[in-house]
Amino acid sequence: MKKNVQLNQWLWKWHVIAGLITLPFMLLLATTGVIYLFKTDYNQQVYQSTLEVTPNNKPALSYQQQLVAAQQSANKPIVAVTLPTSHDQATEFKVKGQGRATNALYLNPYSGKVTGQVDQTQTLMYTVRKLHGEILLSKPGTLAVELVASWFVVLILTGLYVWWPHASAKTTESSAAGFFTIRTNKGKRLFWRDLHAVTGFWLSLVMLAVLAGGMPWTDVFGSQLKWVQTQTDSGYPKYWRSSQGLSSTPNQQHSPLDLDQIVDIAQGYKLPGQISINFPSSPTGVYSISNHALWLDDQQMIHLDQFSGEIVKSYTWDDVGILMELRQIFMRLHQGEYGAANWWVMIFIGLAFIIATSAGLVSYLKRKRKGSWSIPKVPARFNVDKTLVSLIIALGVLFPMFGGSLVLLWLWEQRKRFATRL
Predict the structure, then answer these.
(1) Transmembrane: is it a keyword of this entry (predicted)?
(2) Cα distances (Å, whole numbers) of residue 64 to 95, 112, 170
């Protein structure tokens, strides 16, 4: 590929700027992301005595009896139950909490005794997730992470062009070798540069997919995405996430069904994965049955009348919009939830990214002149063409935090030029 030398220099300049903005944060995000992948194993080990029970010869208590026992021990209302998937698993009752964080009470289904209570906000992995998503700074931290992630997209796109081997008098073979070769005999700076560039190139497309899985959690872009889903009816159906607005029909001849009857109905649907039942939130509310399955197509949401057990509203995954489906696919890939292969791939990507990013930092420091940021210079006669300007504007609209920061950088440049003229 014959490259425009001046364009290459201009993109290199912005690649370095994007790297300086994102590098320390991306190292933190990659490290905490790798740690968070061990969440299930860590929690299983640390809370083993709470999550697991020893089956005995006695039959398990009914779910209604377990609920009564849980309510006697909980200091707040019980709002849901997650059914055990094995005989040595404690029954999980969700205790009412604030926000998305959950407080779970675990009960031995054979003895009716509480094995423990886990407040998610007090766990190590919750802290790791907060560090990963908002660097422990709440709202300002979330915005900072979003800004970094937005600039990282620019880092990838500019890096691809800058690194792409030049067409030259050299042979095609030597040029193609640049896709795979890390030179070890040309000095330390070139070694670190190649380690950064070659590893970064092969990670680039995968990292864009990883970013696609993380961006929906951000504030500005995430809100923008939700708005698009609402306007295009491409998100969850109205009552998928909440039963608010649905109601049961009171029956003078029948009292509300107990939990065992609801569990029998839920198990009769033979839903794959782990089944959760949300309790009615009011005297005329509904029971909501959902399952968390490996494959999205297997997931359902069923709302039942608490008096008759009849379906008030039900959905399959076919009722979910395309944007939400894509969002969930990338979010699950991001968290390594598609089986062991996905988990190992994410571990490898995280570690390879840490190596590539660290190598980029070392390469920059070896090239950097003392007392200077060593930002590549761009010829004054170079003008950005309309296509590139359009691409930058599109990225600024798609990622508002990037667009806003770009405006601030432009104003800073104008201020410097104005000061120089004076």
Answers:
(1) yes
(2) 16, 11, 77
